[in-house]
Amino acid sequence: MFEIIFLFVLALIWIIFAVAQDLRTREIANWLNFSLVLFALGFRFFYSLFSDGGFGFFYQGLIGLGIFFALGHLMYYAHFFAGGDAKLMIALGAILPFTDNFSINWKIFVAFFLIFFLIGAIYIIIASATLSIMNFNAFKKEFRRQIMKRKKIVYSALLVGIFFMILGFVSGILFFLGALIFILTYVYFYTKAVDESCMVRKINVLKLTEGDWLYKSVKVGNKKVLASWDGLTREEISQLRKNHKEVEIRQGIQFTPVFLISFLILGYLWWSGRIGSLLGLFGI
Which domain holds residue 182? Predict the structure, then answer.
């Protein structure tokens, strides 16, 4: 039990630091994520070395790290996570195997992701709604522009939605499918409007930090600094500072609070023995 408490408290402290840094600077330092992995695996190794249970506890940490390494990269390349968030997710892979039994650890992994995506969805809805209200005039104008810009999508979604809703007289699920198509179309316009009207900022080039996302590619002499998901490098920032005073960057919603809330909920479910109940709700 001591080993689980140690890993939980260790991760909790690191996540709190990550949240504080993310909210203050909009980035998570690599040393923070990498040190969590080193401390977690180091503790697992020495605990296993002096325990009677062998190195199963250490090996499970490596397995968890491998699984979360793959998932973190998948989230990053799917543009769901920024680099710091992906690395924090990978680091948690060395923490979450609480036991030396893979079948139990697997349930912990699944429970964490269920909690994470549920909290993440609620968090994004609240955060985007707050942003749209705070920037209502700009949001309203951009929302209207997105619809006018993509009239063909609106009309197509309307026709397909009505078609399935008519078929709903045959099967009720088709009616809901038609309504869902129509609703998701406007959800797409809503997210695009929030992104364009609330998440783009013009800043002084002296305030640029490594990993910032350019809103649009910027010409620097005879070359261009491209807007990419990987963000700006130090060299690119240096080039921009020599040629420009201000640039537009795209700021994402800071996601580290979701890690903290999800980890605390997982801890509560683990200590109360209710992880099985959560998985049962999803038929797992």
Answer: 131-198
